[in-house]
Amino acid sequence: MYMDCLQYVAPSRRVFEQMRQGAVDAVHITVGYHEDFDQVVQNLANWNQWFETCGDLIARATCTDDILAAQKAGKTAIFFGLQNPLPLGTDLGRVQVLHQLGIRFCQVTYNQQSLLGAGCFESHDGGLTDFGREAVAEMNRVGMVIDLSHASPKTCLQTIETSTRPVAVTHANPWDWRNVPRNLKADVLDALFDRGGMLGFSLYPHHLKDGSDCTLDQFATMVRTLVDQYSASHFGIGSDLCQDQPDSVVQWMRNGHWRKSPDLTATFPTPPSWFTDNRDFPGLAQGLRDAGLTDGAVAGVLGQNWFDFLQKAFAPR
Amino acid sequence: MYMDCLQYVAPSRRVFEQMRQGAVDAVHITVGYHEDFDQVVQNLANWNQWFETCGDLIARATCTDDILAAQKAGKTAIFFGLQNPLPLGTDLGRVQVLHQLGIRFCQVTYNQQSLLGAGCFESHDGGLTDFGREAVAEMNRVGMVIDLSHASPKTCLQTIETSTRPVAVTHANPWDWRNVPRNLKADVLDALFDRGGMLGFSLYPHHLKDGSDCTLDQFATMVRTLVDQYSASHFGIGSDLCQDQPDSVVQWMRNGHWRKSPDLTATFPTPPSWFTDNRDFPGLAQGLRDAGLTDGAVAGVLGQNWFDFLQKAFAPR
Questions:
Q1: Inter-chain CB proximity A258 and B113 less than 8 Å
Q2: Predicted ipTM?
Q3: B137·A260 Cβ contact <8 A
Q4: How far apart are CA A116 and CA A130, in angstroms?
Q5: Structural domain that includes position A200
Q6: I need a surface site. Which of A51, A170, B46, B78 has the fewest CB within 10 A?
Q7: Domain count for chain B
Q8: Residue of chain B nearest A121, judged by CA positions
Q9: By the CB < 8 Å criterion, does B262 face chain A?
Q10: CA nearest A198: which of A162, A241, A164, A160?
């Protein structure tokens, strides 16, 4: 079973066909960066159209049984998540409402300060807010996975400590391998895994050693090192694949509408040659095997570990 | 000229008649605590109805000339403000849109963490956020008064320092007189006045020495002390009058929808006997005179200072 726990592909029949060609059984798709509640609903409505027109290739999923059913039917299960808690506003009740709409992952923040916590690019790292603590408890209750990607170190540590369920970092890499604010230092990794959390390895060039030039061997060796240090069971893939998105999208990701002088120079980095779309999953498996991972570890990292984690994480209290 | 720079009265013809009986020329009315953008628009639409049905008593105001015109016509000018920047979302462009809708005051936060800064009841005082700095600059540009009521000490100090225009605390008192988180310590007052800022004295019992039992003499003596210490020109009134609101409103003010276990025991405190509605403004003037304020200082504190401040503050850059 292959599962990718973070993509922001521009949906198209072609992309869904590639998911099938790559034998990808499940994908977590982002439906909100800077969107407010209404705009997230619109994104979900757009996806409902894709399920209708491409129902031979993809299926909407809200639980792990949906993955098994999709797998059996030869389809890719699509889960939804938010990279920003903005659609919650300050209304705790919207956690459950968003869950009822199918949202299964929610980041505590996206880069900057949110109402829940500080982001990895925010000047002051204030950690989890009072409302953040309420939201964590509510996400724990309804079975929405708390995603600490893009959060600040203090926010990560306090959320891991506060959450009564294991949390996830769906897409990031170790800071020791590539020292950028989006990657995680050892103390955060230690705390995350101590509490049963998951890390999805990112394939986004900014998170990779040597960026776009990172080789599959470099990546796989890093995975091997982490698996040896901790346990394979804590790891999965969150590729951060942004296939077919125009550069205006990365500019919007970076700036939203919160800056008077947005950075309009940003462009999507060239993906590594060995991971440009969903068809590259089998190659990824081979790379991990070549780096010395056992077949069991490869199967775990490429899908089974996320499946096992989500099976528990999605169950409501 | 009498001006009250913060009220949350339940609008009614009776209340507007009392404004006229008290010779109150202008009132800043709150149209948002925990409301999102759409809900603020709805509140403004409701007020438009009041302007239509009670146009003989009140007039919508967006500049100080509107106050003079209302005064000439024997009406009370009504300004609007937000006690929470939530309707901005993370969209800097909404500062100007809200200004175009008539919003002339905006708090940096309401008690807890906002996307702009920390509130006076938030556990961690992280000060002004990166987006907060952008929003301050934009409010400075369009001529929206930054209101630091309900903000944390660090947020107050950083906003005062960041803002290129004098800012206001529309409704609070000195912490040295009544030590509650909503009142201001001397360092904040010093910084506020050093940069030309204004403080509106609050008449809300929780901000008064001895609460509901605070006497007019106690209040007026505190005002006299502050006027002597700084200068009368920095002070006005922001009564925080919440006349005719049911207790469900104070529970909603306190809890919004962000807490799983809201405090539902809150009730509105009994107002001091000498300030229960807008007809008490002349009595307030007498109290201040009795405490030894000059006629000029009384006129300044009860209205002219706000007028002079707003004349500059509302002018766009």
A1: no
A2: 0.88
A3: yes
A4: 8
A5: 2-313
A6: B46
A7: 1
A8: B130
A9: no
A10: A160
